Structure formats: C-alpha cells, structure tokens
Amino acid sequence: MGTFDAIGIAGSGMSVYRTWLDAISDNLANLNTVRSTDEEAFRARFVHASSVDYGEPAGATVDGIALGSAEGRLVYEPDNPLADGEGYVRYPDIDMSSQMTYLIMAQRAYQANASVAERARASYETALQIGRA
C-alpha cells in the first residue's frame, strides 16, 4: 500500500456512492411518470459496484447500471389522457420508502468516505510538517 492510497480508495468510494445517489434521484424524480399501457414504464436504475483489491489502484468501482422491470404497475385512471380503452395507465414499479432508505445509506457512505479522505489529507500534511522541522 502506497503513501497516498487512502485518499485514492476513499475517492473511489465517493465516486461509487455519487453514482448511486444519481440513480436514486433519477428513480425518485420519475416515481410518478405515467405512460400508456402500450409503452414501457420508467425503469428504475440500480447500481452494481464491486471492490478492487488487486492491482492498482485499489478501491471500488461501478460495474454497471441495471434497469428494473419495464412492466411497472397498471393503475385504473380513466380520466387520464394516456388511459387505454379500459381506463388503465402504466406507472413505474418503484417504492418511495425503499428509495429514501437507499438515499440515506448512500449519503452517509459518501460522507464517511469524504471524512476518510479529509483525515488522510490532514495526516499527510502533519507528516510533511514534521519532516520540515
């Protein structure tokens, strides 16, 4: 492990959690996106991440974004202009409470990685100050 690896590892974690926060915000923003029944529902975004503990640099990386079900859920709204002949429209199958839980988890993890990076930076600065004395 190199001298400045802690900052790089924490930075890679911040990048992963920023991607997760972006996906969650996209899911929440499209929670009430309505489509006609002959169209796909908005597909929720799910981040796939993995640890990188071999080679350089170590840390975490986003492997990709998976999409949720295109079926969504059918809701009876006969007054909606997008309703089919039977009065149904398609909404995404996204649970707001689980998305809010994910949002809190991702936010706290991002903050933890930012704190690690800041503490590592402060430690490196202190070491440099000691070396100058």
Report the major sheet.
2 strands, antiparallel
Please count the beta strands (DSSP E, at least 2 residues each).
4
Please report which band the strand proportion falls in: under 5%, 5-15%, 15-25%, 25-35%, 35-45% or over 45%.
15-25%
Shape: elongated
Overall pLDDT score:
91
Number of H/I helices: 2
Short description:
With 133 residues, this protein is of the alpha+beta class. It has 2 helices and 4 strands.
Explain what this protein looks like in three dimensions:
- With 133 residues, the protein is of the alpha+beta class.
- It has one domain (5-132).
- It contains two helices and four strands, in the order αββββα.
- It has helices at residues 5-29, 96-132, and strands spanning 45-52, 59-67, 73-76, 88-91.
- The chain has a two-stranded antiparallel sheet. Strands 3-4 form a two-stranded antiparallel ribbon.
- Strand 1 (45-52) and strand 2 form a beta hairpin.
- Helix 1 (5-29) runs antiparallel to helix 2 (96-132).
- The chain starts with a helix and ends with a helix.
- The model has no long low-confidence stretch (mean pLDDT 91).
Features:
two-stranded antiparallel sheet; 133 residues; alpha+beta; two-stranded antiparallel ribbon; 4 strands; 2 helices; 47% helix
